[in-house]
Amino acid sequence: MKIKEEQLSKIQEQQKDLNAILHEVGVIEARKHGLLHRFGEINKEVENFKVDLEAEYGAVSINIEDGTYTVIEQEAIEEVAEEETVASDV
After folding, report:
1. Which of 5, 15, 50, 86 is 20 to 30 Å apart from 39, CA to CA?
2. Can you tell me whether residue 3 is helix, strand or coil?
3. Is a pLDDT exceeding 90 seen at residue 83?
4. pLDDT tens-digit map of 50-71
5. What is the dihedral of CA 36, 41, 44, 50, to 10 degrees?
6. Is the pTM of this model over 0.70?
């Protein structure tokens, strides 16, 4: 006993389409993983560069459009630290 040839063809075509989609999802996920890894690397570079800039200029806020900066007052730094402490306690 066998199903009709056109039914078999339809099943085979559907399986082929599903497999193609699964393959494409795998490619996209692999690309996503690579991009997220690169994002983490760049984020780490940014944080390290912030440390270098702070060592050279002190606590400053930098305008990334023109490179100007303003000194961050110690009170503002302490307020941010307190807010971060409260937020982490929640």
Report:
1. 86
2. coil
3. no
4. 999 999 999 999 999 999 999 9
5. -110
6. no
